[in-house]
Write a structure and sequence with these properties.
By secondary structure, the protein is of the alpha/beta class. It has one domain: Rossmann fold, CATH 3.40.50.1000. About 35% of the residues lie in helices and about 15% in strands. The protein has nine helices and ten strands. The protein has a six-stranded parallel β-sheet, with helices on both faces. Strands 1-2 form a two-stranded antiparallel ribbon. Helix 3 runs parallel beside helix 7. The longest helix is centred in the first third of the chain and has 21 residues. The protein starts with a strand and ends in a 10-residue tail after the last strand.
Length: about 300
Amino acid sequence: MNNSLSGRSRPHSLPLFLPLALVASLLLALAIAGPAAKASASDYTPEERQQYFDSGKYTQDLDFVAAHARKFIIERTQPTIKIVQTCRAKGFRIGKKDPGVDPAADYTVPVTVPKSQLPDKIVKAPKAGLGPVTKPALPRVKYPKAKKAKRITKKRCANLPKLAIAMDLDETAVSTYLYGSNAPDYDAGEFDHLIAGDQTAIPQMLKLYRLAQKRGLATFAITARPDTAELRASAEANLKSIGYKALTGLYMRTSPIVEKGIIKNSQRAEIVKRRGYKIIAMFGDQNSDLRTGFYERGFKYQSAVTPEQD
């Protein structure tokens, strides 16, 4: 049964005598795996995952998607980049004031997406997953002509669209398996990493985050991790420590029962409809990260957990 807590649905009721770490682990298992929390027969074994990492194929798959995302972000923002930079230099706010998160929001309620808010496409790496390194051609960036920054006023800056990107956390912004660290440990307990907050950044996403920051875009994280005080504090501290230091907002899963794609879509709806941002790029490694819409283009990194993760 769902009970109202600060206007949001409370996750599964659990015995109060359970240790906090165990409660967080149980919630995390429910949130990540969904109602039917069982491993898929197609999941990578630890040996396959290590092979995927060490062969260079995982890096190739990430690089391909990130290169297309970089091209899209630059070309999408180039026409107004000079105006945005001048507004920021003058200290003028871009777009309408952000009212912040709705404290009474119920993200478990499905939100219908208008056709204008559906993505034009989802970019994936060709033949992603285990396999030989093929070095596919990467796209070249074209820089459209930027509009001149003349007669910049508060009103003009306030009338600009507030562009943003949004990203999933696990295996999108950060690696549960310490990919990229000096001493990778592919078999470490996934829950332990999330609770401890010692995940490493996925370099391709971190570079795109920094590109978005440089070009004046807001940046949101939308994750299926349960919205508990411990996991939120852990995530925020971990993200700051590895370079994601100025996120506009962190959205977490408010119910382990409702399908996570529904919750993430409802949270994007709030970002767009209430907070006034236009999400130009959405990043994730699972189908549920990109399900439905309220963003312009999706970018799907290959999961390090399974060839095709929902």
